[in-house]
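User: I'm curious what two different proteins look like when written out as structure tokens. Can you demonstrate?

Assistant: Sure. I'll show them one after the other, since each token string lines up with its own sequence. Here's the first protein:
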Amino acid sequence: MHFLNRPAGTLPALAALTLSLSACAAGPSQPPPQHSAPTLTHNCQPQETVGFSCELHDHRLLSMCASPGFAIFKGLPKDNPGYAYLVVGTSEGRVQYSYPPNPYDYKQHFFTDVPSNGIPYMFVTSEKGEFFFLAERDDTDPLGAGQWTPENLPEGWSVSEKNKPRACVRVLEFDNFHAMGVTHASVWRLKEWERRKAEKVKASQP
């Protein structure tokens, strides 16, 4: 064999030269394609009903999610066997907060009504009281009027836009808002206003 008499290291050198020539012939190498994470419009599960979803000031998503078919339930809201919850998470789908802890308890925390101006609204309560409010969009308010009541946020929740005039900077999903059919209880809200007013009066007294 001719290769037996070659100096040590000749074969590796030839192999390296061959690989180098092949690489040159193939042209410059291309970096692997970068696949960015998809940007979501809500943080609900794929099969769930999206009641609404919006982008917060810190670019996280606030969504109301419900069980499949929730918005097309034909009975009274109190008889709906489904579930609903409010969720905050990143635009990449990482959930940070959800409420209530048991989504089937939503009837104790989600309330909707249509006042005299005809613009439906919804509010969500914690054990402390109402902590989120959202009105349906109309011609005078195309983004909807979402707002926090910071002192009533659920335990562990943190929002950076506590002092902003509205919670959402842009609405991403809104088609099912009017059809969600959560508990209609405007009387609860009136009682809540009266409770807050009484507390303020008591606090102002010497």
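Here's a second, unrelated protein for contrast:
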Amino acid sequence: MKLLHLYYDLMNLYGEYANMAVLASRLKGQGLEITVDRKTLGDAFDCSQYDFIYLGAGMESSQKAALSDLLPHRGELASAIGQGSVLLFTGNAFELLGSSITDASGREYPALGFSKFTVQETDARITGDVICQCAQIKEPVVGFVNKCTLIKGIEAPLFTVSMGPGNQAGDPREGLCLGNVFGTHLTGPILVKNPSFLDYITDLLGKRQQPQFELSPMDNPHPLRAYEITLQELTKRRDGV
């Protein structure tokens, strides 16, 4: 199984590299053979050759540099998606999946166009802890958002927010889910903070390689306990307890 970590040095705010690290560890723990490639600006790569493609959060200037470098690979990404590869874009990398990004000065950047949503940057940052529900898993998802954008036109959100900011003001929907393509502003890193979401992605990849794959339970109690404490404390704050 081949995993690709894109722009690992450029798009790595909030310790986002740990999403790839914890996923690789979970896959190896299932007895799956994996290779992890890391590619950045100017490197040669073919997205269609990978089972999993990850891109994390970065500064706004880094995001535009990554977008410019990635646009020539759009056809390969489309092929990967068509073949059932799993994509996870977190933080403002998620915004690259839409049709365009307009910065605060009004300049528009064409994006990858896998969804019709549009992104508008603002002068104000939007931050906050998040609790949300995901249709794919039973347990709530927790994380943190730090962005300066509003997103309009999401046709298929990944999460429904019960605490914290969604895709735009007054909208409880957050992120994007199109088949095996997942985008979210949640950082933390999200796969570290949410063992159930990590297991969901692991199971998708395991079944991609072995149709009869069965996920074994996580044998390390610490991530589960950390998640329980985080959810408990955020729920108290949300409910005013």
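A detail about the second structure: The helical segments are 17-29, 60-70, 74-82, 190-193, 195-209, 221-239.
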